[in-house]
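Handout, section 3.2

Students often ask what a structure token actually looks like in practice. Rather than define it abstractly, here is a full record for Phospholipase B-like. The first block is the sequence as you would receive it.
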Amino acid sequence: MTTGVMLLALVSLVCVGPAASEGESLITELADEVLSNRQTLLSIPWEIYRDTPSFRDVGYVGEFPIKDSAATEIHLSSLQTSRETQGFPPNVLIGRALVKDSLNVTQPPSNFRYTGKGGEEIKHLNGLTNPVGDLTVWQWQRMRWSAAKEWLEYWADRGIGSATRLAIIHSNGDVLYGGCDENTIVYKYNRIVSASGGSQKIVMAAELSPWPADLGWSYNMSSSSWVEGRRADVLSDVSVPADWESTYADCTDPSLGPCSSSPKYMYANSGFIMGTIDALIDMIAELGTTYTGWDNRWFNEYYLKNPATVTLDYAGDLSISLHNMKLGNLPLEVNSTSTGKSIQSKLTNGSICFVHGNGNSFTTLQGVARELKA
């Protein structure tokens, strides 16, 4: 692991404010990140023209050196738990991939999933476009997950119990923290796992629409019929109606991605992943090396192939995804008390730990961020 990553970890663990309540600073940190996210195309990360004139095509760019300004690593968040203030690592490691020096986001614009425009490209004088925007997005994806694997392996090598120590990896620039304390996060994780059968090591967010869209077919196959039963079990455990989506889903615009015929919050969303360190390392091993598709496809396929290892948060209790929700009638609200602000679920009447505003919901997410900071 690089010295920079270790320094970030140490700074996050030691430099905590004595007066802040648990999670309060992270609410502000992620709200600021969302509000400052200009949703611009991802920049070209390669040193393409180091030895080649800019007017000449360069062939495959994937193995060109990465610019220093694009170096990516996992930024460790702090909830300012009592354990952290004593200089120990938290019980739940929380990280997201940011540009190493600038701390800029490394995700494409939230609407990439339906516009297809996520990264910069270069059109050469001979008419060729190289790299195309999709290749730029893929390279940033590759760097994010390589950084995540390195980060997880660093903590595994520290002997902190990688088979039991929990970690969260979430999207950057389009995620808010709702104010749960660490004990609540662990409780919600354990409750979802228990309701799913008890063997699972990983809990992922869910969402209303499969992305890429053809994944909907995989969920409709008879071999995946267990999905509906698990969804029902998880919802029943937190007393959420099986048809809760009928109140909040808005699947009227097919260009934003399909929903099932009766909208169901049932597809895997890689914007939030929580699990034991060793299980997460096993799952993401290919993403930073050999996998050439979109990462969200990988996570959906992995989930469907490994139901005993992975389950989803069907009630949006740990993390809720807002794409294709009714943006004027969200299943959440900002709650203000004497101790600060938090994000509350209208489904469970409890806290929501993370909110992912991808797809068509980013502007609405910024509105929630403003409420948190008001």
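Discussion prompt for tutorial groups: The first helix runs from residue 3 to 14. How would you have guessed this from the sequence alone?
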